[in-house]
Amino acid sequence: MSTKTAHTPTAPSTTPRKSVLLRFRQAMDLQLVILVIATVLLMGGFTAASPMFFTADNLLNIANQNASTFIVAAAAGMLLMAGYVDMSVGSVMALAGVCAAFASIEYGMIAGIVCAVLVGTLVGTLNGVLIGQIGMSPIVVTLGVLAAARGLAQLLSPGSLYGLPVDLIGMGSGVFLGIPILVWIAGVICAIFWFVSARMPAGKHTLAVGANPRAAFLTGIPVKSFVMVLYIVVGISVGIAAIMQVARLGSAPSGTLGLGFEVAVLTAVLLGGVPFTGGRGSVIGVLIGVWLIAVLGNGLTLLNVPTEISGIVTGVVLVLAAASSLSGFQRRRRRPRRVQLSARTAAVRVSK
Amino acid sequence: MVVALETKGLEKSFGSNRVLKGISLEFRSGEVTALLGANGAGKSTFLGCISGAEAPSSGQILIHGEEHSGSSPRESIEAGIGMIYQHFQLISSLSIADNVFLGSEVRTVLGATDRRAQERETLSLLLPLGLTLNPAATVGSLSVGQQQVVEIVRALRRDPKVLILDEPTAALSHSEVSALLELVSMLARTRDIAVIYVSHILSEIVHVADRAIVLRDGVVYEDRRRGEFEISDLVDFISPNKRLPSVRDTRDASAEIALGLSSFSGSASGPVDLGVREGEIIGVFGLLGSGRTNLVETLAGVRPTHAGTARVGGTVLNARTPRDAAARGIVLVPADRKLQALFPDMTAVDNVVLPHMRKLGKFGIRSRRSERAAFDTIADALALHPREPDQAGGAFSGGNAQKLMIGRWTNPASDAKVLLFDEPTQGVDVGAREDIYAFVRAFVSEPGRCAIFTTSDYEEAVSLADRIVVLHEGEVQAIIDSSASEAELMSLAFGEDTTLSTQ
Fold first, then answer.
1. Short-list A260, A232, A227, A262, CA closest to A89
2. In a domain, B503, yes or no
3. Residues of chain B contacting A338 with CB distance shorter than 8 Å
4. Which residues face B58 on adjacent strands?
5. Residues B198 and B288 in one domain
6. pTM
């Protein structure tokens, strides 16, 4: 580096037009590509095996049944990108669902929705303060909340609840322009998550916190508050998911609502390319992960495969996902190519 | 000249440990001030207080006359403090532009990050500094020197009034150091910034600093302007009882060959033909990327041997893993001790004896007493300070952390014969440096032993080594005597002159 004259060039023409294919290849992890290919192959296989699979009805059904998972997985994915985990989502869903059911029976659908979101937010804040601000262990705290929230839900509602307002159930089974309302809700929310994660500074900040929290802090990112906010966001999404589930089921069974949900969410997030230590990953990957697992379950059911086998298959898929996350498949480090500058900036020496 | 930064009676204690005992200093715009001191003198803590990473126990910080009471890096950045930390604070998986704008992103109307604008601006910030890189490139793919410039660009973008560099050249090659020094002076003058520069490399200080401040034991010990001090003065100020690194006497040319290399190659270094005698110290000298680390890592079994053979005491070495190598007595003290070697949460004793616990123990059970004894031997030999066996590894600073790492591989239980050293005194202060050199010389004076170290520091190469292997882009340029001049070594390292080999 010799001392060049302090000659600030006017905005040079940026990197030459890359072909669409090249840009695509550079942008995608090999891991993500494998995920997409696996999904396509799986869907192809099921289509061949069962005529009922690739129908609008069935596909929309898959989306409808998993709408809650999409929403919470997107939020939990961003949380894990920052290196933090929330194991309590299933139990909080039960708690929020039960509270929302009570509220909606007494005061109507809107009250139910508000109540669900409120409960989710409160628990999210609790998690966020304990883990983000105070610094307690994420797994320990959220496992504790998992146990406590489920217990609380069952305390409030020992049996299942009935008598939900009609408009709530209507939302749960309603259709708008051919697509279930719940799918619309999931679509909008996931789009927002995608936008924030991929296009807004906050997305980079989550990756920074996950990759190197100390560096993120020294850069000026308020790490503690940031992590707290992420937990709150997860809480809110769980609240929304809860009311959606309750609406779809028409009831709020405190013992089984959301049971095992955290496992499904975590599986999808890991499958989608977010390593357990954070620092990498994308919302798109997570959503594809959810879809893959959902398709798997649906396809196996259509083929009348017993649920036990289905469980084994899902487990195998997760192990394969772990294999694809080995470093050989990571996004290639983009080499620092020398930039070609336009004639206006010819004063600066360009070398390869 | 304007006072950009002033501290009044700055104090900082960690529990009962008083690190800063009242520092009152002024730093002026347009000047480069060097901040010096031995490890433990309080430099990093002082900088930490200014940059917001630590909160001072008492005292005031004023920026352009206004009191600054921020307690987070974010507030300090906004107040005009730009800090470049010793251990890089870049996110290696993100791009250059992402890193430069992290925390101060350019946004579109919708709130999204405007990637194009960021990349364009990054480019225009990089170019005047001499770097023509693609701003979308991942930081992890850059060389250390390039990363350093990216860090500077990131700090400059926030328009700082004070720019602080904490040991910026610790991991740089010679040419990159010169370039950085020029850059730093230029920045101070043309942008009217107060630059504070911490370094252990005294030749740099004399070259670039307008003023040198020496801290000792938490207070300001000396404050001299340019022209009022020389390197020897600085050495005295920092640790009064140490001499300059001494030059080696020539060794006995008839001793046995302890380590023989014939056409030995690693994946990015060699082939090397060399016979290292007992009691000899070899320096591997080269710029960054010359293959120095690659060579010693291959010898140590960290990387697979590409071609050729190495013989230890006559028998061929076949080291596929570090364990194989260690079994033959070849040990490596790696360059980046924070990342590669030190266990910050384990005690000092544990850090030192970790690979040898089985040997020191009886019947598979650990023997704390033998472990403690091994630690004591090493702590004495290296003058470890503080001599605290139970202190956490992460609490030891620079030179002393390095001593722990050396101790791990050279304590009595390790049975080391060939000591390999990647950048032995990187980031280590003058006093500790001399301790380490003395130790290496004592080590090789025992029968059957030799040592090889890598360095990009000319002074270190000539004062510690008997012979110097100069590498350039992986290839051996020459193997010369340590009486070579700096000019000769540098031109060889640049690949310019190959007629000086004196095998």
1. A262
2. no
3. 132-134
4. B11
5. no
6. 0.73
E strand or H helix that includes residue A276:
none
Asked if B183's CB is within 8 angstroms of A1's CB, the reply is yes
CA nearest to B287, candidates B502, B147, B474, B462: B474
Q: Is the Cβ pair B111, A200 closer than 8 Å? A: yes
**Structural domain span for residue B347:** 257-493
Query: Domain residues for A287?
Result: 30-326
The answer to whether A4 and A339 are in contact (CB under 8 A) is: no
Judged by a CB distance cut-off of 8 A, whether residue A352 touches chain B is no
Of B96, B113, B132, the CB nearest to A350: B132
Does residue A254 fall inside a structural domain? yes
Give residue A328's Cα distance to chain centre: 24
Counting the structural domains of chain A, the total is 1
For chain B, the first-to-last Cα distance in angstroms comes to 56
Number of domains in chain B: 2
The two structure tokens encoding residue B206 = 């004399």
Which of A296, A310, A292, A294 shows the shortest CA–CA distance to A34?
Answer: A292
Residues of chain B in contact with residue A280, where contact means CB-CB under 8 angstroms, are 93
A220 touches B: beta carbon within 8 Å: yes
ipTM of this complex: 0.72
Which residues, other chains included, contact A104 with Cβ-Cβ below 8 Å and sequence gap of 6+? A111, A112, A113, A115, A164, A165, A168, A246
Residues 6+ apart with CB under 8 A from A294: A62, A63, A65, A66, A69
Same domain, residue pair B35 and B168: yes
Cβ distance B300 to B328 under 8 Å? no
Residue B296 and residue B151 share a domain: no
pLDDT at B7: 87
The tokens describing B465, both together, are 């080594």
pLDDT per residue as tens digits for the range A188-213: 999 999 999 998 889 999 999 999 89
B248 part of a folded domain: no
Q: Is residue A345 domain-resident?
A: no
Q: What is the CATH number of the domain that holds A168?
A: 1.10.3470
Residue pLDDT, tens place only, A311-337: 788 788 778 767 766 655 555 555 555
**Number of residue pairs across A and B with CB atoms under 8 Å?**
134
* Contact (CB<8Å) A335/B176: no
Task: Give the whole-angstrom CA distance, residue B300 versus residue B331.
Answer: 6
The answer to whether A16 faces chain B, any CB pair under 8 Å, is: no
